[in-house]
Design goal:
By secondary structure, the protein is mostly helical. It is about 65% helix and about 0% strand. It is built from 37 helices and four strands. Helix 25 packs parallel to helix 27. The protein is elongated, with a radius of gyration of 30 Å. Keywords: Lyase, Magnesium, Metal-binding.
């Protein structure tokens, strides 16, 4: 099954790329924020109010003005002109404050005059708090006798927008609105109550980890802790400071998240474990960098929990409740969609009955994101796509390779994010991530396509394609196996999965439509004779034997029109869903050694039972009409019949979906639980992989009999490579 995928020079380039990415785990690289650097540069020296405390920052401003007169990120996007106006005005004020750089000031003022109309352009990305901060700087310019080249009506409009925004926050009077205004304190000017603002000071001396807010506080209060924070900031970054510090936890978590979404995390297992071990330590210590930021807290919870760390949801819920999540987020900070998206993803990892509060956040965050989409309030097009995908494909119905390909197609190696000003981080967005992701996807797909051809040949050699009663499911099965276990190392797992799935489909069709009662009896007798003389694979033999007997029972019920009890039905149906013969042999090929004790363990049996219950009920709910037409029993039919006149079909559907949800939560809890577990994590993951496949194909309709969407998904995963040139040309 081994094929040559790439030439040596290509592999060498891949290895070099991997090494560069590994080094990114050691150091966080954030772009310089000219906006924040300007505010730090404005801090006066304690010994003289006419001299800057940080002259190096002033020099940075003089050295880094763009030819057009602006200060902003290099190679600025045209939709970030509004952001550039804010940063440029801050830099002008800083230079004017120390009466230096007259030529720079003139060029900056010319840029503002030439581009001021962008303020009214609704297509422009707007920095957080722009209406308040920009207006505050306009007033500051007046106090400094700096004449801005703006018409009186424009100045009045700017100040009016600030007044409206501040009034809205005052009327809200929530903790969130107060924190929001404190975060924007450099733009509030004389309206600030600095004593109240200092209540938000963190252990590191900063206000909100924001250099600009902290610099404004130091200017007014000469607080030694603020000074220590800024000194530490400059020691780490030099004279040009970032927009947020510290940000290491968020950035490293985002690195891991991106590597997983791009499908290349398996190449960096050691680096990822090292980061998550440290994040777990910070989580237990309730470090401010994690617990005081919604995005970081939710992302840490999700990654720690999915990687098997024992983390309680109480810390996340405590943060959300303390922050008055709805009031503090909605309508104040404009970058909160990303945070709520992370909360939505994290809240899908409910595994315990006492995590009802997490489920409540799932409902709220879903509604919040849906509202943002409806109203077109998400500025970032890539974030919009992420939100749509997260809403359409929840965690329990999301297949890795589908996620990987969608994310690779939209991945921006130079992505710019925006808070008070725009910034970028090479640890999160870079060309190496995308290039390795594309190469990895295409090489894995090439191997999987080769496997598919071999499997189709196997099907032909075994003459399974001649069985007219049987559905041909090689491609569907290879899609399911490849979408969840895509690495080259899992080739044997995929092949085993597909072969046993194809045989299971064939047996199912044989009992459904392809045989008489006598032929079914003959098949069972034949298999019994085979089983009695072959002892090499006793557990697998038992799985196939149990499957044949359960299908026989169901066929008898259909022939004799017997209506079984629900217990009788489920006893047979969780076997006839035919997952046992697929899961077990694939599990032996994963790598970890499976002893007889593990297979016989109550943990293994419970994992299998929970998976089969979910699979059977999903099938019965979505394929009800087809099954009814064929005269078959289903859990939906039995539940409705047993309820009598008091139960409608819709009531039964809801009851079965509730049952699916509860069993799925139990399954996820067992998969993620490490303490006391005897089943290796890789094996438990296979149960969850199969559960995700089942939830996806039965997400809306009976995926096994509706071909269009499934055919497209198969094509994307197995046949269509990613064209890097097309991505770069977008």
């Amino acid at each position: 099954w081994t094929i040559r995928l790439t030439n040596p020079s290509c592999m060498q380039r891949v290895d070099v790329t991997k090494e560069r990415i590994k080094k990114m785990f050691d150091k966080v690289e954030l772009s310089v924020s000219s906006y924040d650097t300007a505010w730090v540069a404005m801090v006066p020296s304690p010994s003289s109010s006419h001299a800057p405390l940080f002259p190096g920052c002033v020099k940075w401003l003089l050295d880094n003005q763009h030819p057009d007169g602006s200060w902003s990120l290099p190679c600025r996007n045209s939709l970030l002109t509004k952001d550039a106006l804010s940063s440029t005005l801050a830099c002008i004020l800083s230079l004017k404050r120390w009466d230096i750089g007259e030529g720079h000031v003139k060029k900056g003022l010319h840029f503002i005059k030439s581009n001021f109309a962008s303020i009214y352009d609704e297509r422009q990305y707007s920095p957080i708090g722009f209406d308040i901060i920009f207006s505050g700087m306009v007033e500051y310019a007046r106090d400094m006798d700096l004449v801005l080249p703006l018409a009186p009506k424009d100045l009045d409009a700017v100040l009016r927008n600030r007044d409206l925004e501040i009034e809205r926050c005052y009327l809200s009077n929530s903790k969130g609105s107060k924190a929001y205004l404190a975060y924007l304190s450099e733009g509030m000017g004389k309206l600030n109550d600095w004593k109240s603002i200092m209540a938000y000071q963190r252990k590191n001396g900063s206000l909100f980890n924001s250099p600009s807010t902290t610099a404004a506080a130091l200017t007014h209060l000469e607080d030694c802790n603020c000074l220590n924070y800024l000194n530490t900031l400059l020691e780490n970054f030099g004279d040009g400071v970032p927009i947020i510090y510290p940000m290491d936890a968020y950035i490293r978590l985002s690195m891991i998240d991106n590597l997983e979404k791009l499908g290349i995390d398996r190449h960096f297992k050691n680096e990822i474990k090292r980061v998550l071990d440290e994040i777990h330590r910070q989580w237990l210590q309730k470090a401010e960098e994690i617990v005081l930021d919604l995005t970081t807290c939710a992302l840490a919870f999700r990654l720690l929990r999915t990687h098997g760390y024992d983390v309680s949801s109480e810390l996340l819920i405590e943060f959300v409740e303390k922050a008055e999540c709805i009031n503090s987020i909605e309508g104040h900070c404009r970058d909160t969609t990303g945070g709520v998206l992370e909360l939505f993803k994290a809240s899908q990892l409910v595994i315990c009955p006492h995590e009802a509060a997490l489920e409540e956040q799932n409902s709220w965050s879903r509604e919040f994101l849906q509202c943002k989409l409806r109203n077109g309030e998400i500025q970032d097009s890539n974030l919009t796509k992420e939100v749509i995908h997260a809403l359409n494909f929840p965690y329990h119905a999301s297949l890795d390779r589908i996620v990987n390909k969608a994310y690779l197609k939209d991945y921006d190696g130079n992505r710019v994010q925006i808070a008070k000003s725009s910034y970028c981080c090479s640890n999160i967005s870079n060309e190496d991530f995308r290039n390795l992701g594309v190469q990895d996807f295409n090489s894995c797909q090439l191997l999987q396509e080769h496997e598919l051809k071999q499997l189709e040949s196997w099907e032909t050699e075994c003459r399974l394609d001649k069985l007219k009663f049987s559905r041909r499911k090689v491609a569907v099965s290879q899609f399911a196996a490849s979408a969840t276990n895509s690495s080259p190392e899992r080739s044997d797992v995929r092949i085993s999965w597909v072969k046993h799935a194809v045989l299971a489909y064939m047996i199912d069709d044989f009992f459904d439509v392809g045989s008489s009662k006598e032929e079914q009896e003959n098949l069972i007798d034949l298999f019994d004779k085979y089983a009695s003389s072959n002892f090499d694979f006793p557990f697998l033999t038992i799985e196939w034997k149990d499957l044949l007997k359960s299908m026989w029972v169901e066929a008898e019920w259909t022939r004799d029109k017997i209506v079984s009890t629900m217990d009788e039905y489920m006893s047979a149906a969780i076997v006839s869903i035919a997952l046992g013969p697929i899961i077990l042999p694939a599990m032996y090929l994963l790598g970890p050694k499976l002893s007889e004790e593990v297979i016989r363990s109550s943990e293994y049996q419970e994992l299998f039972k929970l998976l089969c219950i979910c699979g059977r009920l999903l099938n019965d709910v979505q394929s009800d009409e087809r099954e009814t037409e064929e005269g078959k029993l289903s859990a939906l039919v039995l539940h409705t019949i047993r309820g009598g006149d008091t139960i409608t079909k819709e009531d039964s559907i809801k009851a079965l979906k509730d049952c699916i949800n509860e069993n799925r939560k139990k399954l996820l809890r067992m998969v993620l639980q490490s303490e006391g577990s005897v089943v290796p994590r890789a094996c438990k993951d296979l149960f969850w992989d199969m559960s995700q496949v089942l939830h996806l194909v039965y997400h809306k309709v009976d995926g096994f009999t509706s071909a269009s969407e499934m055919a497209n998904a198969i094509s994307e995963v197995l046949y269509k490579p990613i064209d890097l040139k097309t991505i770069l040309d977008k």
